[in-house]
Amino acid sequence: MTDELLLKAQRIAQRFHESGTVSQTTMREINNIVDEAVQEERLRAFAESSAERIRALREKEKISQGVLARLINMSANSIQKWERDETKPTGAALILLMLIEEKGLQIIC
Questions:
Q1: For position 4, what pLDDT does the model report?
Q2: Would you say domain 52-107 falls under CATH 1.10.260.40?
């Protein structure tokens, strides 16, 4: 879970911002820091459970490992290793898999 202290600090900063003590620029920077932390946490959580989630994603979209591999510019061997939990997706592939899981294949097609 995202550090509770970070979220608490954001809420406090928001109250200060509403009272005029914290500038819009500072509030934007704080929100960006929190957003990045939340995104990193989501990526980490997806990567930890990627084997089941990738398999479920493929079954939901009714596509083969090879088709998924082509769609995200990876090899079918990579997809197989991810589904066997031998390796974990990283980088752009991880982000694309999360997007497909959330929005469906139409997000990249």
A1: 86
A2: yes
